[in-house]
Amino acid sequence: xxxxxxxxxxxxxxxxxxxxxxxxxxxxxxxxxxxxxxxxxxxxxxxxxxxxxxxxxxxxxxxxxxxxxxxxxxxxxxxxxxxxxxxxxxxxxxxxxxxxxxxxxxxxxxxxxxxxxxxxxxxxxxxxxxxxxxxxxxxxxxxxxxxxxxxxxxxxxxxxxxxxxxxxxxxxxxxxxxxxxxxxxxxxxxxxxxxxxxxxxxxxxxxxxxxxxxxxxxxxxxxxxxxxxxxxxxxxxxxxxxxxxxxxxxxxxxxxxxxxxxxxxxxxxxxxxxxxxxxxxxxxxxxxxxxxxxxxxxxxxxxxxxxxxxxxxxxxxxxxxxxxxxxxxxxxxxxxxxxxxxxxxxxxxxxxxxxxxxxxxxxxxxxxx
Length: 369
Known about the structure:
- The strands form 2 sheets. Strands 6, 7, 8, 9, 10, 11, 12 and 13 form an 8-stranded mixed sheet that branches. The protein has a 5-stranded parallel sheet with strand order 3-2-1-4-5.
- By secondary structure, the protein is an alpha/beta fold.
- The chain is built from 13 helices and 13 strands.
- It is globular.
- It has helices at about 15-20, 35-45, 50-60, 65-80, 80-85, 95-100, 105-115, 125-135, 150-165, 180-185, 195-205, 215-235, 335-340, and strands at about 10-15, 45-50, 120, 170-175, 190-195, 240, 250-260, 265-270, 275-300, 305-330, 340-345, 355, 360-369.
């Protein structure tokens, strides 16, 4: 009888929902999590599983990804501001031209194809098994949901179960935020389930990892003061929204100060000279923006537009911003805590920074246009 180590993983399958949560970022445009996962799988020789249905789902959603939309938005913005950007030497015409010629859809698809080039492609299961699950409300089918929409997942999940039956020495890590997937595998002792790619990275980095969780925490503590000093520069001038003040426009952060760490430190990458950590932080922030003044603006009834708009300047203090960042740390493996240095800090989603609990607001009646 083979007694499997609880922490041994030889296979992994990642559901579409988990890639969607990380914006299908196969090129590390916004976050290192997805690429770090594939690099870690390669270093540990963990094989990827994929089903033709899952493959088509992922490729279909790449064009709807946050990364794709962000780059397209950047192209449009630079196109509109081209003369201003070039005149003030923020960039040159060649940079804008190169960006416009960049096909992000192709970059994402090619990167995805590269990472899955050696994946094990699962066969289709017996349809009789799927229809039996459907009529008997067996997961992923359930009475509460539209059961017909679960057929793609049912084919994928049953294919995985068939593969594990034929390969009894394998142990599978399932990465999915879909509770129907979790329910379908809940009684399978060959499966470990993690809800997200970040959780999967944290788990895999703890399996035969070169650094213990305690050691990683000590390294982070050794650079925490540098992080505190860097926070204001990282968040300065970042666009934000203020909860309860939706009418404000062009709101930005003026100052930011680290209050505390609000979530567990999650390792995305652990090597002998680099750490990439996902960290949840709470900041105390101040900011400013403008507020539209309809009473001092001129509306043209015929053209249905404002001839000019008047605004008041606004500012706020004592705001609270909770968000995630990624911290890259370089270090010497032989003396990690004394040599650790922050090499990069990234805001995970700087397109959606929501400031809460604002209590002090100032309005300057400038009536500027």
